[in-house]
Amino acid sequence: MVLSRGTVINGLRGNYKIEKEDLHRGGMGIIHIGRSGNGQVVVVKEPLIKFNKDDAIRLKKLKVEAQILANLDHKNIVKYIDEYESG
């Protein structure tokens, strides 16, 4: 899935609409700004690497990253909220 302005993402915990695309591009992904269904501003990370559903090792690594982020709680680290799968 290529995320662009107006795209709605159906996460595991809610829906999010992309409001500003390509806020930043890095070596591992693209950062977008979105809004949750309740109006909260959110940051969306879109991996640059496109995964095949058969690519179990890479998908598992992303799941582990999501679990680690979900357990972090620090004022200088973006709070993990949700995840989604595309494709």
UniProtKB/TrEMBL annotation:
InterPro entries: Kinase-like_dom_sf, Prot_kinase_dom. This is Protein kinase domain-containing protein. GO terms for molecular function: ATP binding; protein kinase activity. Transmembrane segments: none annotated. SUPFAM superfamilies: Protein kinase-like (PK-like) (SSF56112). Residues 17-87 form the Protein kinase domain.
